[in-house]
Amino acid sequence: MDTATPAPAANSGATPVTTPAAQPGTGAHPVNAAVAPLFQPFAFGRHTLANRLVMAPMTRNKSPGGVPTDDVVAYYRRRVRGGVGLLITEGTTINHPAANGYPQVPAFHGEAALAGWKRVVDAVHAEGGRIIPQLWHVGIARRPGVEPDPGVPGYGPSAIVADGVEVVRAMTQADIDAVIAAFAQAAADAERLGFDGAELHGAHGYIIDDFFWEQTNRRTDAYGGSLENRTRFAVEIVRAVRAAVSPDFPIVFRFSQWKGVDYNARIAQTPEELGRILTPLAGAGVDVFHVSTRRYWEPAFPDADGGSPDTLAAWTKRLTGKPVIAVGSVGLDGAFKVGMFANRDAFEVKPTDVDQAAQALARGDFDLLGVGRALLSDPDWAIKVRDGRVGEVIPFDRAALDRLVV
Length: 406
Prior knowledge:
Layout: E1 42-44, E2 47-49, E3 53-55, H1 70-81, E4 86-93, H2 111-126, E5 130-136, E6 154-156, E7 160-162, E8 165-170, H3 173-193, E9 198-204, H4 207-212, H5 227-244, E10 251-259, H6 271-284, E11 288-292, H7 312-320, E12 324-327, E13 348-349, H8 355-363, E14 368-371, H9 374-377, H10 381-386, E15 396-397
Parallel strand pairs: 3-4, 3-14, 4-5, 5-9, 6-8, 9-10, 10-11, 11-12, 12-14
Antiparallel strand pairs: 1-2, 7-8, 13-15
Helix pairs in contact: 1-2, 3-5, 5-6, 6-7
């Protein structure tokens, strides 16, 4: 597959230091030695992140009509004050009729929604932080009846029929072209609004991942069949986004093996197959790979190389040479469970130490560490980790999903 010349990569070229620069909103402070690698600066496009901690994208359903509210602005501002180096927003939908699949998720198109995001960006920057949007199309996860237009079905690589009704439409070439253009426009708008980069959501059974996975991609044209063909849609999106933004505007690409409906799913069965997916994406213009796993520390291919202990993040960095964000149950003593965000049963996990994550980063397994649920209940999680006060962390529970803790 032909590839475009990659843009300059966001890299980890900053010189390691024992005590980093002041964290956003916290002032200079000595760092607990056990986690010092997490608090080193990191070069990211035009800027340098204060540390290696990244707020992972988490859907909050708090934007009526797709427009971020004052509460959303305060929510992101508060995580910068709590010491996170880079924020990735919740998934925000591109300008396509079938992009959305859930109530009250924010849009990334239209005057009102973009004005709301501009206020988020300005608030984060005023606190000295950095932020990128996660650009999202839910693909086959959408069903008719969902806002904003209940009559629109899901869109995906192949049709899905339920009870005699087509609930997911097989995308035509015109549909594919429209989605690619919408991703590119969203990225251009992100740069125009002042965001510090953009993330493409290519994970978890959403539209880009739908094309990767054999079970959902049964096409027989140039976008289906071989692994290279199933990667083509993602590559074309990355290439279009790269052309729509400046060379030093970082493109982050999030991918996963697991799906929301199948935690054992794989888009790549071996490291070699993973390379066949990721190498073209890197060539098309991805600067940073965001590797989503249930538990970031688990071996990705335990049968490879005589029993390799390498994680999916470590394999990704080795295969592409690009910086990598690792994520998956960071700061928790339990991994997420099937349906835990959907059911109303109480679910609580307690904080655990992040020393092993700091050691893995120091080894070079990855460059940045994504933190999700641990930041929902406790906006000061990063400061407490930095100061060696992990025992003071407020544990995550489901109640944090029902409101924006500030």
